[in-house]
Amino acid sequence: MAASYVAMLALSIYFPLLLLIAWKRWRRGRSPRHVVVVVLGDVGRSPRMQYHSLALARRGFSVTLLGFCNSKPHHEFLQNDRIRIVPLTELQRFAVGPSILQYGIKVVFQAVHLLWKLMCREPATYIFLQNPPGLPAIAVCWFVGCLCGSKLVIDWHNYGYSIMGLVHGPNHYIVLLAKWYEKLCGRLSHLNLCVTNEMREDLAENWGIKAVTVYDKPASFFKETPLDLQHWLFMKLGHTYSAFRASSEPLDPATERSAFTEQDAGSGMVTRLHGRPALLVSSTSWTEDEDFSILLAALEKFEQLILNGESFPSLVCVITGKGPLKEHYSRLIDQKHFQHIQVCTPWLEAEDYPLLLGSADLGVCLHKSSSGLDLPMKVVDMFGCCLPVCAVNFRCLHELVKHEENGLVFKDSEELAAQLQMLFSKFPDPSGKLNQFRKNLQESEQLCWDENWKQTVLPLLVDT
């Protein structure tokens, strides 16, 4: 008798589940051109997943992107009628109970919430998932894929456990648990993409995961900014940030002048100001893997050279982005008493960021990969704008930055200060080293993201 009750209970549980699976798979068969893209992070700060979505949409797929909507994506992404953003709810941090309990509650909430959002969507042919963060997203997406017949594609940007290790230490039990989970669940996907050859080799050798390298490439809107558009941007930013404002007023009140450019009142022609400052740009998420004290120390050394009578331009240093360590570094910046260097830390609109990169004289990257296996997307964008870069060196940076060819690599503030001294020694003389790097970038053939995606990712989707 008891056995019959157990059988009836099992049937009552599994029969609706089987019906759900059959219904979902039937619906997927009726909509074979749908893809779900999952980002357990800010959509606006996940350019690679935005580019995946755009590439899929341009090839006839309807795309549903699930993620946090904390900042605005690029307008090209927002205006595509084949892409729909479904916001996920981000559980705010709360200081109740031990940290392991707080983390556990967050993971359970995200798992249930993501499962609900995925099951309420039209079944997809593919589920594209950004990793990190992969906990709990990999397991949830795999489970939904099993129910709906969707193929899981994991795009490995880095390792989640290594990023957690920056905060907790590499041997913390949460970090070790995250590593075990990532290694186990990462093998459940149908297709794995990654950002460097060294990551591909590491996944194969240490994780048993076969991946395909898909290098980051700039979107088509990352390009050199025309001078008239530079002037418009500088005037716009000057309303908020004093570093972009002219240090002196023009003789003609109708003439518009920024710190870098001037527009003639009669002809409307824009020219660069004689004796203008050099514009240095760095972008960041203000996290533990970027040590901005290196840049500040190098700027101090550079300023001392000017105070000693050396012939160098003054600098405007723009550090864009937002993140947990921004207030910490803002306090350090406020403690500096620069006379020839201005530092500002704006958060730019998505459309203004490419324009700023295309207007700058030099880019600086302080990204040190937590795993040593990923590459900074910010440098890819800078190269798209033909902007020379000084980048702090780490294990696989050579796959992107070619020292003395498209930029320079450094290991500490001493080397960075020496590079600033060399690059700005003849500024803005076209014969200087800075302009030679820019010419090298202009002459190099650079595929944009969409063409690169067409050549690398699209054939893989056909094969799966």
From TrEMBL:
Gene3D superfamilies given in the database record: Glycogen Phosphorylase B
Glycosyl transferase family domain location: 278-425
Top-level enzyme category: transferase
Bilayer disposition of the protein: Single-pass membrane protein
Subcellular location: Endoplasmic reticulum membrane
Keyword terms: Endoplasmic reticulum, Glycosyltransferase, Membrane, Phosphoprotein, Signal-anchor, Transferase, Transmembrane, Transmembrane helix
SUPFAM superfamilies, alphabetized: UDP-Glycosyltransferase/glycogen phosphorylase
Superkingdom of the organism of origin: Eukaryota
A GO molecular function held by the record: chitobiosyldiphosphodolichol beta-mannosyltransferase activity
Protein's pathway: Protein modification; protein glycosylation
Glycosyltransferase subfamily 4-like N-terminal domain boundaries: 53-213
Record-level GO cellular component terms: endoplasmic reticulum membrane
Pfam families, A to Z: Glyco_transf_4, Glycos_transf_1
Main location: endoplasmic reticulum
Function: Mannosyltransferase that operates in the biosynthetic pathway of dolichol-linked oligosaccharides, the glycan precursors employed in protein asparagine (N)-glycosylation. The assembly of dolichol-linked oligosaccharides begins on the cytosolic side of the endoplasmic reticulum membrane and finishes in its lumen. The sequential addition of sugars to dolichol pyrophosphate produces dolichol-linked oligosaccharides containing fourteen sugars, including two GlcNAcs, nine mannoses and three glucoses.
Family: Belongs to the glycosyltransferase group 1 family. Glycosyltransferase 33 subfamily.
Protein known as: Chitobiosyldiphosphodolichol beta-mannosyltransferase
Organism: Phyllostomus discolor
Gene name for this UniProt entry: ALG1
